[in-house]
Amino acid sequence: MWPTVSGTSVAALLVSHDGARWLPTVLEGLAAQTRPVDHAVAVDTASKDASADLLDQALTPTGGAVLRAPGTTHFPAAVELGLEHLRAAGEPVEWVWILHDDANPAPGALAALLAAAVDHPEADVLGPTLREWPSLRRLLEVGVTISGTGRRETGLERGEYDQGQHDAVRRVLAVNTAGMLVRRTVLEELGGFDDQLPIFGNDIDFGWRAAAAGHTTLVVPQAVVFHAEAAHRGIRRTPLTGRHTHYQERRAALYTLLVNTRARFLPFQWVRLLFGTLLRMIGFLLVRSVGEALDDLAALLSLYSSPREILAARRERQGRQVADPAEVRALLAPTWLPYRHGLDFVSDLAAAATNQAADVAERRRAAAIERDPSSLAARRPVADDDDESFEDTGVVARFLTSPIAVLLALFVVAALIGARDAFGSVVGGGLSPVPASAGAWWSLHLDTWHALGQGTAVPAPAYLLPLALLASLLGTSLTISALLVLAVPAGAWGAWRFLRVTGRLVSTRGASRWVLLWGATTYALVPVASGAWGDGRLGPVVTAVLLPWLAHAALGFADPSADRRWRAGWRTALLLALTTAFAPVAWLFGLSVGLVVVAAAFAIVPSAMRDRSTWGPPAAAVFTVPVLLAPWWLPSVIHGASEGLLLDIGRLPAPASDALDLLTGRLGDLGAPWWLGMIVLVAAVLALVPRATRIPVLVCWVVALVAGVLAAALGNVTVTLDATETTLGVGFLLVVLQGAFVTAATLGGQGLAAAVSGGSRARPLVAAVAVAAAVVPLGGIVWFGIGGHDELTDTEDADIPAYMVQSAVTGQEHGILVVRGSVADGLTYTVRRGDGVTLGEDEVLTLATADPAFTEVVRTLLSRPTTGVVDALAESGIEYVVLPAPADGAVLAALDATGGLQQASAEERTTRAWQVDRPLATDAVDGPRSWLRVGLLVLQAVAIVVVAVLCAPTARRRRR
Prior knowledge:
By secondary structure, this protein is α/β, with parallel strands linked by helices. The chain contains 39 helices and 19 strands. The protein is globular and about 110 Å long.
């Protein structure tokens, strides 16, 4: 027993579990205190190493006590065992100094804590500065608090060293239990530490309860304890921590917030932690920390599934809350702190992506130097902070002195001017009106039965999911406007990046920036010059933007690293699925190209195909797409709408294209003059001449050949639907053909430029080719700018009276039967419900099979109408019958004489309308729920998250 110091009695209470590697130093630090402790009690929880023996050897000779407890004894129970021993010994102490077996106190730690207690008699809990062990200088904690999201806040910078900057004794919410000096009476009054916090978070909870009970907690920077944080870092695992340390820490944080938050803020805190956990999970998934994301979810579910524990703990705390709530709230972290951490996380993620891109660039530069030591990459100097040659001359100056940058800027401005018709609401051609809100798209995507027409289970098109995600941020109208307005600039950006990479793969010098300018601008105009943009065909427009990024991701299949090949496979899968959503034929094309490439690789290097990392990534890229698009793919086949898997999106029929149209990049009679596309085709043929780039140009022609064969096969097939006849979709294949031609011509231009720089005498010929090629982007942008498209408008012509539309919006049973045509030429009908047929709904209706029974009702209504037919209309949810102008006189006369049909007013004299005078069936278009589709939607969500994580940049969090 250490000698007792008069005036103040202190008992050291040390808790140990498998801490033999630290205990000798900790016990030496305890014995070396300039102010010795009066009593010493150690509690060992069934250590499997020599911890208990070390404690016996150090404490028993001096009168200390070593208590042995079962391995399931948690930290609060171990502290309580120590307190019971002190009470049973009949030696009451004023202060209890709590230590961990991995916390080594500096010699003056206890003396500094007691001195602060004398200077601040109101203090009931005191804590030291915690420094990292074994570094000894890096700060861990100087007091601690908690934010509203459950984050443990120390107020320290990451990796901050102790330089005396935190030397003031101050009040805090809590101090770590490693070195905590607490009055015994306060510890007993508060019931010790909470048993629901077995190892983590009990210090913050205890400090919060102490503050609410009117007690003061101080941090004493002059007292220093070195802490190894063995449990937090995962160095030591116990039955309490298990393998999921993060789960225990997060659960403790959520529990602490829920049981200590004031009652009136509890509902808000409950919801905030729910959505905050979801956001944290997304953040963890973005940095590929799947385990921590699942730990967060498990911690939330563990607490939210047992609210009785939370309520019981809150009732136990209510009787001790005597302090002013504002005083306690001032000790918590500021409300804005979580948002700052969110910004820091985003910046860290951006830095991770930037660093990864820099690593890739450095690897490419190193490979270029290895292949050609005399290349530009080897001679490129490294910027030196002291070198004046790298002094920043200003962004504006560099921009104005770069003709490439100026021309690109003018091109983008001209493209925005040409896209002026797409500003605001857009409809016309192949583009249907958009719904009023993103909720309509979400509902259409998630519903298993659609109340359209007479009801159908045909699934919504796959592209509605990305549109709904964008519309949730931008709104429906702005989403479509942004896709159209930014199509040309975004296409130029992607094409520039792809062509620059392909050029560097061919030669370390890469392609000339003038050649890249031609290639990027020419490709960016493909959706415009084809006529797809002016006709509102979102498929070719969006896929033209996605195709360069998809091709760039596929280039990763040739990376020498197996890990990077697999990541390229997942990136390709995600981009191919997105492309297929807007152009269903894209998956068939990807499968065909994949088979050709794998077959060629097997023929060239048979041994390489034995390696799964060679053929696995392309296979994963292709066969992951059906999983990602399962809610659209499988139900389409089941419900007889499999034609939609090979049709272009948008209104049908789609424009038909012959072979010449495909080769010149035009959709039927739409688009720019054909000779602009012919120049690109001729340039792609001439690209086979330069020997230096002939092989990559041949690869482009192979891709074009695959696309051409598919286009020839699909373009000659006509699909007959109930509503119309149309050819299979070739819009995406047209984009691929033009992209392959542009890439081949760009590579050929690179080869010609290399030949000229090597001393070739063909300079006049090259100059003539360059002038002819420049006509394509110049002619295309001029044609686009002067308004070479007239299908898009602000509003759609409506022949339905407004009051009928307003009634239709009130419920699905207020349907409008619209009959067009004449008896001589044939009559057709459509059923309008809600706010009309909007984008996405038109494809569902086109692919849906007409209800034979309802068709027979309409046929009878228009030929031999009776009151029984009117009753059938009401049972089918039809409130109005409308015959737009010009209406057939014989049909008009028959409907006028039908009982149960009342004439209704119409906005045009030649348009006639009748109202059904019968009670309407509210469940006329209701249908069954498909649990198969619900399961497929869940599978899709999980698959998207998994694939996104697998292809995301790596930014692993490391513990201190």
